[in-house]
Amino acid sequence: MAHYTTADQIDLTAVADRYGLTGASLTPLSGGAANSSFRLASDQGEFVLTSLDNHDEGSAATLARHTRALHHLGVPTSEVVPTTDGSLIAPISDRLLMVKKWIGGTVRQPLPLAFLTEAGELLARLHTLAPEADGLEDVPAGSRRLSSEHLAAIPGFVDQEFAQWLTSRLDRVRVAEADSLRAPCLIHGDLFDDNVIVRDDGGLSVLDWETISLDDPLLDLGMAAVGLAQDEAGLLDTDRLHTLLGGYEKQRPLTAGNRALLPLEIEHAALIIAFHRYYRHNVRFPNPERATYHRAMVRFTESVTRRV
After folding, report:
1. How far apart are CA 110 and CA 194, in angstroms?
2. Which of 169, 173, 189, 248 could make a disulfide contact with 211, Cβ separation 3.0–4.6 Å?
3. Does the pLDDT at position 279 exceed 80?
């Protein structure tokens, strides 16, 4: 099973000392597929404390540096709070901790239709940022895609029907992508509603930069469609998709050719998510309660070809 941190495992006295806080208290926050987060209240203000449970010191520092760089570039996202000695990560009691300023607002699932235009605009602005900006020089290329190790694992899946379906669909995507090349840009890679905060002032902030990479902007748009444009049945909602695209194209218009290729990249994104859901819950951390979680992405993928 995956291991996560609980509040009683946090040395709050040590945290307060490293960050110069008084009157500190912790409240667990829901969500988070890879890390554990807490609301950290103090006399100095409110923060989010995250235990980077699935990181080593190098990857934790990289995540913090990328997050800080994006905030400095004007992306509405978390502001990383350094320790009193200027470090972005605090190793405390065998845990790697990161503190960010609290963003007043709520995560709304699903993200209401009225906010999808702004979500599209935010994604487009990210795609126009210079990847060589200070703090982003080491953003990896193509890391949101399935790796060769991932692809090699598929034939061994116990669910052979799913394995064959996934392989066939990925082969189709690979052939189609070979004939179309787009310049890579900074992508978020996981713009789902649980990574978007509707702030108290009515705007949006984007969280979780663990999947940031340099890649095809259409793949990122496809991932956002998976994350933000599903209907109540978990199928592609074309009204939500068009609203998301309307916001995106206010900032970064798509060519007719790219619009035609978008359904393929929505499917590609759904295949990536389907793989990770199966792999996580059936291979890495077997969980009978989540063993069929990937099937929702199968249904979503099938809906793309019918509805776009």
Report:
1. 9
2. 189
3. yes
